[in-house]
Design a protein that fits this description.
Length: 225
């Protein structure tokens, strides 16, 4: 029996997100190794623009769809969109919120589960939070790198699952802890006063807006939108 390598091709034709070149199609250049192929010039695409720091989130999401990720609305209101895909052994759910792009990694091929309204269940898996605020990496570049690894069956090691950036709640807590004790106490009193002013008096968390809730002790919970 011949062991000759027979390449496979991706289904959709797309434009390169980095340089704008049209007529790209994913092709398997070696077993389980995929790269964009330039159909016009009949060669693997050698992108002249390596600077992806200015990628917008819309461009990232479009690119995910181009390489086979499916878009859903999550059941959890913390995220606005979910983009999901699987390879031979893993599934990834990219969860798009206002303040960053989180993802869940499943070390098995997860069956897509929807509720009666067609919204996506996102339970289980390993959660990785990636906030734009104070991130030490370019979140958009990171997401594309992880997506590329998934579609090429390249291992996604621990260096990609540490999470980046800080939530607004974490920054607020750090700021309060950094205050002198007397000022810290005053700040907490102020937050409790805010709670009392907007709470209906039932002891439940009150909504401040922009996805943020405040509890009766003045602590904040950033749940996104």
């Amino acid at each position: 029996m011949s062991n000759e390598f027979i390449p496979r091709w991706g289904g959709s034709v797309f434009a390169c997100d980095f340089c704008g070149a049209e007529g790209m199609q994913w092709t398997e250049v070696s077993p389980e190794q995929w790269m964009p192929y330039d159909l016009l010039n009949k060669e693997v695409h050698n992108c002249p623009n390596k600077n992806i720091d200015k990628l917008t989130r819309d461009q990232v999401l479009e690119h995910l769809q181009n390489i086979g990720f499916e878009a859903y609305i999550p059941r959890t209101s913390s995220w606005k969109f979910a983009f999901i895909a699987s390879n031979q052994s893993q599934s990834i759910y990219f969860l798009v919120g206002k303040r960053g792009i989180d993802f869940k990694l499943y070390n098995f091929v997860r069956e897509t589960k929807l509720d009666e309204k067609g919204r996506l269940f996102t339970d289980g898996g390993e959660m990785v939070r990636n906030y734009y605020r104070e991130s030490d990496v370019n979140i958009h570049e990171l997401i594309l790198e992880i997506a590329s690894r998934l579609v090429t069956n390249t291992p996604i090691d621990e260096s990609f699952t540490s999470g980046h950036g800080k939530s607004w709640q974490e920054q607020k807590a750090e700021y309060i802890r950094s205050l002198p004790k007397s000022t810290e106490s005053a700040a907490r009193d102020e937050m409790r006063d805010i709670y009392e002013a907007i709470s209906p008096g039932d002891g439940e968390d009150a909504y401040l807006g922009d996805g943020i809730r405040i509890s009766s002790d003045g602590s904040l919970d950033d749940r996104g939108r």
